[in-house]
Amino acid sequence: MGGNLKEIRKQITSVKNTQKTTKAMKLVSSSKLKKAEELARRSKVYANQLNAMFDDVVKKIRLRGLDSINSRFFVKSKDREIKKLDIVFITADKGLCGGFNTTTIKEVVRLMESYKQKNIKVRLRGIGKKGISFFAFNDIEVLDKVVGLSAMPTFEKAAEFIDSVVEDFLNGATDEVIIVHNGFKNMISQELETRAILPLTINVEQDSQDSILNIEPEDEEDAILDELAKKYIQYNMYYALVDSLAAEHSARIQAMDAATNNAGDLVKSLTISLNKARQEAITTELVEINAGAEAIK
Prior knowledge:
F-type ATPases have 2 components, CF(1) - the catalytic core - and CF(0) - the membrane proton channel. CF(1) has five subunits: alpha(3), beta(3), gamma(1), delta(1), epsilon(1). CF(0) has three main subunits: a, b and c. The protein has helices spanning 2-63, 100-117, 129-137, 155-170, 221-296, and strands at 84-90, 121-127, 142-146, 176-186, 189-198. The protein is an alpha/beta fold. The chain has a 5-stranded mixed β-sheet, sandwiched between helices. It is elongated, with a radius of gyration of 29 Å.
């Protein structure tokens, strides 16, 4: 019985130490989330301005009577045939964040199966150790692999990564590019984001709005569009990384909070077991003492 008591005490100590760790991880992620959330907010403001300027340039060109745009970044036909497709996925470098990574991985696998049924060749480009490790374990090739970027995103590294994807698209190596990641919705939930970033589509539904630009594209409209399109895609890649980072910390907060609570419940359960074991030990000792006293008589 003494050995049993010792074992329960060791379990309680171990669970309490784990509880301290999960609580500390929750506090760290809470601090990081505030920074990531603020960065995502500022990035979204910039992205909205960039999108507005992008649409404004397209609108000016269309209003000049151009029925088509020669920029290679843009879709030429709604009925275009897709034979090759790139999927860019973003996962975390670390775990302990609930289903954050699993949700993204499952969506990528689902998309791969869906396109495979349509005889569309799919290539993967991955950011984040968890996703890369999963596909490596399952012998699925990942063309570009980057570890560390999802944990510390910068615009320069995001642009460097996506530029090779854009180059393949412009050279005809792929017909479409899709990005998949978990996005930040609020403090307690994340939202899976799946969207095509190439080719670009033309949005001219807001022609009645005042122009935000004081320039008029003349002979270099395609060059202007190419440069804006490149910046637009680069920044969308960066924003996806920032959004994913905020979502990761949000998911880890929830996971560590649940782990801390579960550890507390387990400590209570083990404490009850410990008290029962002690009572049984005391009862056994009393019985033995009484039996010894009766034997002496």
